[in-house]
Specification:
280 residues; 20 strands; mainly beta; 4-stranded antiparallel beta sheet; 36% strand; 4 helices
Length: 280
């Protein structure tokens, strides 16, 4: 039972196999956590974002995504068993076969306040996403994010004011396992001699030690999805979501026994909705 006495149900909205986990019924209008979809060079992942617990961090991440500032961004750091990092650098043309000799900084919105201890405290464990910061500067997060590829809680939760975890993986964990299989000259190249120290472990889509082309860099391609639930006077509720063009949106519910289909439709780039009448 939920805190308001209503039976708890869960909904998910998969987008071509990506699942949006939506918790619970509330008698008032409710907003589910946002979902960040990463369509990476290694496969697809989805992260539930902690909108309520880490509001400034999530708003900043969503603003960077929806403003297009992460467009053509790369993953520039991969340390298997530790982190994969991105959000700092972009290229002009991801399909260029020229050598990747020009990277540009992501245009960010400035520093944000560290929210590690705001709301629920989430540790930097495997499958969580957090904001990167400048050394010895707790309130210096701007655009760079990292995904924990292992349990980094012992160090990342305590140093530099704690690194703010603002989401966790809900689909695509196999992508992280794939990243953990990479090593120097096997999916990772050292470009620090050309670009400087931050580029000592750049993930690439080949094995070898040659300089990568733009098409061989690792791209995350991030998109934000959101489901809004609104109760109706007749006891039903309306579920609405922003649908990606040309992709399948599948809404399922769980009644504590199994997942069942509620609605299946093709995305059209607009807000779509469905009425759920089975809410008790």
């Amino acid at each position: 039972m939920g805190s308001n006495g209503w039976k708890m149900r869960r909904f998910i909205c998969p987008i071509i196999g990506i699942f949006f986990l939506l918790h619970a019924w509330r008698p008032e209008t409710a907003s589910a956590n946002s979902l960040a979809i990463f369509r990476t060079s290694y496969g697809e992942m989805a992260f539930e974002l902690f909108d309520d617990d880490k509001p400034k961090t999530v708003r900043n991440f969503i603003a960077l995504t929806e403003s297009g500032r992460y467009r053509n961004s790369i993953m520039h750091r991969l340390e298997p068993g530790s982190v994969v990092q991105g959000g700092g650098y972009v290229v002009q043309n991801t399909s260029s076969t020229n050598l990747a000799t020009n990277l540009f900084l992501v245009a960010n919105f400035g520093f944000i306040t560290n929210e590690f201890s705001t709301g629920t405290i989430y540790s930097n464990v495997f499958g969580t996403i957090a904001m990167a910061k400048l050394p010895n500067s707790p309130d210096s997060a701007s655009s760079q994010w990292f995904i924990n590829l292992g349990d980094n809680s012992a160090s990342f939760d305590t140093q530099n004011g704690g690194f703010t975890v603002f989401g966790r993986i809900v689909y695509g964990e196999q992508v992280l396992h794939t990243l953990n299989t990479k090593s120097n000259n096997y999916g990772i190249v050292n470009l620090s001699g050309f670009y400087g120290p931050p580029f000592a472990t750049v993930p690439v889509m080949f094995d070898g030690a040659v300089f990568p082309r733009y098409t061989e860099l690792a791209y995350p391609r991030i998109e934000i999805l959101k489901i809004i639930t609104t109760p109706n006077l007749d006891g039903s509720r309306n579920l609405a979501w922003n649908s990606p063009t040309g992709l399948v949106c599948r809404i399922e519910y769980r009644d504590d026994v199994s997942w069942d289909l509620l609605h299946l439709t093709n995305g059209n780039g607009l807000v779509q909705s469905v009425i759920d009448t089975n809410t008790v």
